[in-house]
Design goal:
mainly alpha, 6 helices, globular, about 75% helix, about 230 residues
Length: about 230
């Protein structure tokens, strides 16, 4: 049985939407105007300030989904299954953003849009395939409770794929053209670091905003399905 959820006052929504919009606009303008240009890459390196924050969110999503799925397996409350599904939905969207922005950056910087030896790029592709399999199996199972149970175990697969993607650069000696971890030794100039963290905060706000919006939509769809079944 699913628990009842208290509605949040609309004023909170409007305030949060405003924060998301302002932070994203500010982060984009700062990434274009503030940090110095890397001579080896030119203006193409500014994709970095979108690519990295989006990649971080794409990796957090499956881990959150697995956490929610684990709670579902213990409590059998469909609320947690819906939260897990929402987290994987957004992880897939952000992972696609990584796959699109990465080749653009790579082609501009190194002349190679898709390097088969690039461990991080290939691992993100595998993550997308894992998430896609999650949605396919979820769609094919008609029973709501069986769907939630199978999805919970598939969330483990997606979480493992996310962890392997995170470790691709750190654990593989020659990861390809992809640069090393931005938090590794050597680091970045202060202007680049400040811009990157601003982007990280802004895109995490975006993730939270989309998470709340998508979760509410899933809740509405479930309520409609229940009403249709009762009417029929």
């Amino acid at each position: 049985m699913e628990r009842k959820i208290k509605l949040i006052h609309p004023a909170f929504d409007y305030l949060f939407y405003l924060v998301v919009c302002l932070s994203l606009v500010f982060a984009v303008f700062v990434s274009i105007l503030y940090p110095n240009v890397i001579l080896e890459q030119g203006l193409s390196h500014r994709i970095f300030y979108l690519h990295v924050p989006v990649a971080w969110v794409a990796l957090y999503g499956p881990l959150l989904s697995f956490l929610f799925s684990f709670v579902y397996l213990i409590r059998k409350d469909l609320l947690w299954d819906r939260l897990a599904f929402t987290a994987n939905q957004l992880a897939f969207v952000f992972a696609l953003g990584v796959l699109f922005s990465g080749p653009i950056w790579a082609y501009s910087a190194w002349g190679v849009p898709w390097d088969k030896t690039d461990a991080r790029l290939q691992s993100f592709f595998i993550l997308c395939i894992s998430l896609l399999s999650y949605f396919i199996f979820r769609y094919l199972v008609p029973s709501r409770k069986k769907k939630a149970t199978i999805s919970a175990y598939l969330s483990l697969l997606c979480a493992v794929s996310a962890i392997l993607t995170w470790g691709a650069i750190r654990w593989i000696e020659n990861p390809g053209n992809h640069p090393g971890s931005v938090l590794g030794k050597g680091g970045m100039d202060s202007d680049m670091k400040q811009t990157m963290w601003l982007g990280v905060i802004a895109y995490h706000f975006l993730f939270l905003f989309l998470f709340l919006l998508s979760n509410r939509n899933e809740k509405i769809q479930e309520m409609r399905s229940i009403l249709r079944s009762k009417l029929n």
